[in-house]
Amino acid sequence: MTVPILRGMQKALNSDAIRSALADQGLSQKQLAVNLGVSSQAVTNWLKGKDFPRPAALLKLASALKLNFDQLVQTSEADQPIIAFRKKANARTTANHIDNAKAVGMLLKPMVPYLRNLSTLRTLITSPSADYERIQAAIAQTRSRLGVGERAVLEYEHIIGEFSNCGAVLAPVLWGAKGNHENALHIRLPKEDVTFVFLNLDTRLEDFKFWMAHELAHVYTPAMAGTDAGEDYADLFAGALLFPQAMAEAAYHETLKQQRSDGILEIFRDHANANMISLSTVYKQVMRYIRAHKLPALPVQENSIHAARNSIAGDLISELLFDPLPPPPEVYIAACRNEFDSDFFDALRRMIREQGVGPSYIQQVLSTSIHDARQLHEELRH
Predict the structure, then answer these.
(1) What is the pTM of this model?
(2) pLDDT of residue 8
């Protein structure tokens, strides 16, 4: 039996998988309808491809049948969400990470019509390269476009504004402290031509700007999103954007006056503090400058940089934004709009009021607890 494809729609339920799951659980279509709180005709229409469940019903259906969204929803390859997790050291995303993120991407599709003011004139890096000089050239163009000089501090506002200019929607989240790659999630919906970027606010101040610059690189290079090459390029771009060649050159020449590694370390730390970035970013950019120009090496080891960096416990972005933590829903929503220029929660509000989606939708999309989802839903539906 072939899986029905909805005419005029981009997705359909996998009717074979649903019937198989019903048989495994000894359920009839009528019993399924009762469990979901919908009519038997609604279930019949879903299975025949005449209709598609709303997000809240889709969530209940997945839970009732114990199917993930890749199993439940049939989509064309071109309609699949593109997922990018920033890798850290040797950390690798698992198939479960990718499946969950794709499920979130499918759930985000119904929200797209409720987004406003998405720019269609977007900046792209058409020929991204890991070559040092070419990255520096791309950085010079980017900083010029943002109105930031080569030695000026890149502020958060510059990066935030560029996301909205490029049709990307920021979704600040409170996911708790994460150790590997879960501090940012990039979901591109190619058919809708919209990118959602989830940024974890429970991240250290000195790291948060790097995460944002990394995600901006993905927005500039959509064809590379979701690949190892794309992750590597985004890391190179982010470091250079935050501490470009002119800054690295100045820092290097300052270190030539120092004979001791602790003196060099102090110079790096001063530059990191002045730019509100991590000590590691400064070190790596100076090292790349040295290698690119074949200059004498510095008497400082990377392990000493990591040791010094790990000894610093900087503030979390969430701690700087909210007092007390966790913030009340109205404060959290207002910060997302005002601090991050994000239409995410306003679009979600419009969707809730028009489609009647419930707290479980928020729980799934934001990967939050049902308690927090209910509080946010209560705030958004009024």
Answers:
(1) 0.84
(2) 33
Overall CATH class of domain 11-75: mainly alpha
**Cβ density class 238-262: b for 16+ within 10 Å, e for less:** bbbbbbbbbbbbebbebbeebeeee
Distance CA 154, CA 159 (A): 8
State yes or no: cis peptide before 326, omega within 30 of 0: yes
Neighbours of 205 (CB within 10 A): 16
Q: DSSP letter string over 22-76?
A: HHHHT--HHHHHHHHTS-HHHHHHHHHTS----HHHHHHHHHHHT--HHHHEEE-
How many Cβ atoms are within 10 Å of 352's Cβ, its own excluded?
Answer: 21
Contact of 183 with 199, CB cutoff 8 Å: yes
Q: Mean pLDDT of residues grouped by 10 in the chain (382 residues)?
A: 33 86 91 91 88 80 83 78 70 68 87 87 90 97 94 94 91 79 84 93 91 95 91 96 98 90 93 94 96 93 82 85 94 95 95 90 91 96 88
The full set of domain ranges for the chain reads: 11-75, 78-242+312-382, 245-311
Q: What is the rounded CA–CA span in Å between residue 295 and residue 22?
A: 68
